[in-house]
Amino acid sequence: MENRNEYRNVWVYAEQRQGAITPVVYELLGEGKKIAEKTGSELCAFLIGSNVASLAGELIEYGAEKVYLAESPLLEYYTTDGYAKVLSDAIKEYKPEIVLYGATHIGRDLAPRIAARVNTGLTADCTKLEVDPEDKKLMQTRPAFGGNLMATIVCPDHRPQMSTVRPGVMEKAARNSDNKGSVIQVDMQLEPADIRTEVIEIVKHKKDMVSLVDANFIVSGGKGLGCADGFAMLRQLAEVLGGTVGASRAAVDAGWIDHANQVGQTGTTVKPTIYFACGISGAIQHLAGMSESDIIIAINKNPMAPIFDIADYGIVGDVNEVVPMLIEAFTQYNGEKEFA
Amino acid sequence: MNILVCAKQVPNTNEVKIDPVKGTLIREGVESILNPDDANALEEALRLKDQYEDVKVTVLSMGPPQADDMLRECLAMGADEAVLVSDKAFGGADTWATSNTISAAIKKAGSFDIIFAGRQAIDGDTAQVGPQIAEKLGLPQITYVQSFELDGDTVTVQRQLENGYEVIRVKTPVLLTAVKELNQPRYMNVKGIYDAYKKEIPVWGIDDIPVEKEVVGLKASPTKVFRSFTPAPKGKGVMLEGPAREKVANLINNLQKQHII
């Protein structure tokens, strides 16, 4: 290993898709800022794409002091080959001390490839990052064994220290239009032949509601709903609250709702203001994806269901009876608020 | 056509319990299984074998000697050959060191048109070893594969995204990682089980594969476990009492009082 002290600054991979910054990037900038302050270094964003220069200003407003900009028509769509080459070449040249990626389907594809190429460690799906007060090394905490165990991982002798960070866990950076920062154009050596995969098409599921990660209110259903129709009722409650619908793995496996709605270890991690768990028993894999919610309200027939152990409010009862009452009560509450 | 499948034997994490006194994992009595995403990887390879002539499917695993059981299960499902990469020197490795070992073993095993792996293993959930093997073999990779088509040497897949999917085309050789939406893995069949126990599964140690001793195992791993602990349980909440309507009214009251709504 070459001299560790040559490595400076905190980099955030500023993932964008079709010209829009992926929401986890704001969370990485929020967390990255704290780490940069503790390690006495600068917070930088690394932006890759085609015609994405206009996003650099936004990254600066969210706290990036420097934005490295790598633009080429070859980088219009995310490809492992293209993006990994640009970012690993830049890591070798600029030597950041820490590189953070969102643990998205793109971040989890890109980061391991880069770690293998630049020969450093990578910690997956971190839910907590800290700086060792003594030697300033990054302490990366992540769940393992389906959330049964937490492990804090360090990367003592290799640089950069790299983590993918689970979306929805860290606090978003505050936006400030007075922030100042500089944009650095990255010199690239990228040939069409470097990119061996071809993106033919990007297909988006139709979304009629806010995404799980962004929702302040999530109404989730599990096996206890009894059938697919139960989700229509949950959708109604979510609409009244201005939120969205989530689901446990059991409900997804039963074919009642799309995988895109799944909350938990193999689904999305969420941190809403209120999480309603309706007919969800509370398997540890589910808890791993929602236990950080501000308020958890559990409704379940079985008073012994493990979901009640982490719920802030528990209602023992039939979801098909209680949820309609909640819809009525929140509708009435909304009405009163409007006229207050 | 030569196809390689990377497989891992994992504890069934649905059954893993924590010792409430010691705060450690209780692994005794927990069954070991073929990692679920790897079963999807194997199934897709076997479907190619069903569809085309002259397809050979080799399953390769790094793990302790008892992973032999899992490899026999893969043979019983229909794989042609299996290799176990096992040596104390490989133990305790992180994903960087693991991919050094596995990519070296794959080089010894031959040249492959397609390498299938699972997206991630349920014990570590990192999803890193597949891409890192691809990097070390100089192959293109496509992760989160939820549908797969082969036409000559052209592979077309759907790669799962959070809010949809992308359609990607690539020429073989390529490494792909499978998600559970890709297919429904088959069961072992009786003849397969019988044959599986007659086959020999070679075990390759550190001297059998082209790898430097300095890049494998715990010592070579860039990442180290600093500490591990069980997640702290949250304080007990409030169970709302009374008839259903009263519970709902109480809930709204409480949320207002807490300024949540």
TL;DR of this structure?
The complex is a heterodimer of chains A (about 350) and B (about 260). Helices cover about 30% and strands about 25% of the residues of chain A.
Largest sheet composition of chain A? 7 strands, parallel
- Output the radius of gyration of chain B: 22 Å
Biggest sheet character of chain B: 9 strands, mixed
What spatial form of chain A do the alpha-carbon principal axes imply? elongated
Q: Would you report the number of β strands of chain A? A: 18
* Unreliable parts of chain A: none
Calculate the terminal CA-CA distance of chain A, rounded to whole Å.
Answer: 66 Å
Annotation field: number of helices of chain A? 9
Cα-based radius of gyration of chain A, to the nearest Å: 22 Å
Placed side by side, the strands forming the largest sheet of chain A appear as: 7-11-6-1-4-5-12
Report helical residue fraction of chain B: 25-40%
Task: Tally the helices of chain B.
Answer: 7
Strand order within the widest beta sheet of chain B: 11-10-9-12-8-1-6-7-13
State which percent range the strand residues of chain A make up: 25-35%
Q: Helix- and strand-based class of chain A?
A: alpha/beta
